[in-house]
User: What shape does this take?
Amino acid sequence: MRTPSPAQLLQVWERGGDASAATHGLLLLGSCDERSAAALAALPLGRRDALLLELRERLFGEAIDVVVACPQCAAAVEATFRCDDLRLAPSQPDDPAPWLEHAAHGLRVRFRLPDSSDLLALEGCADADAARGLVLERCVIETRPDDGTEVPTELPPAFQATLAQAMATADPQADLQLAFRCPDCGHAWQPLFDIARFLWQELHAWALHMLRDVDTLAQAYHWTEADILALSPRRRQAYLELCAP
Ligand SMILES: [Zn+2]
Assistant: This one.
């Protein structure tokens, strides 16, 4: 993994605009990983998220502060996690098996794990049921009934539920839950943590802050944006302090 420069990060932020979280995740990956766009889009989501956690640590350090509203009493609850706490031991190798097997309810399927290309395809889905149906349609490679009868045109709902569970179990990093307890009312819950969304929000705040600093230094010293972005953070900070009113 390479650490993107401030100029490269600003380019990623600019290209991302109002795109979806799936697109943001791919742009972030592309800034730090040499692989082709197609190869990155085909990484299982847990693998993608492990890379994004590593990128996050390189860019903004290892402590992650999260503030969420308690679902019971709406109090703001804060917690700090370390990137390491959120990084599970990889259940899939870097080069994962092209397919896995799941058997239940008299059916046996070969499937692959959902990836970013699936997330992009889901963007047109009207609701969660349609999205789940489309993920299964895209990720199931082959279906075989145990008794050799004809392959069903649609997977039965009970089977779909166990298959969705099998996919989540096979790629736990993609389904990361935080543990929260509200100090006001004692309510405990486990919200999902989406590193792609979280890191993009951080990048957005960083970009606005950086552009403000560029503006300040350009006005004071008449340097170009490229020159200012190429300064080390320490030197940039020292100049900012010198020209502070
Ligand atoms: Zn509460």
About this structure: The first strand starts at residue 63 and ends at 69.
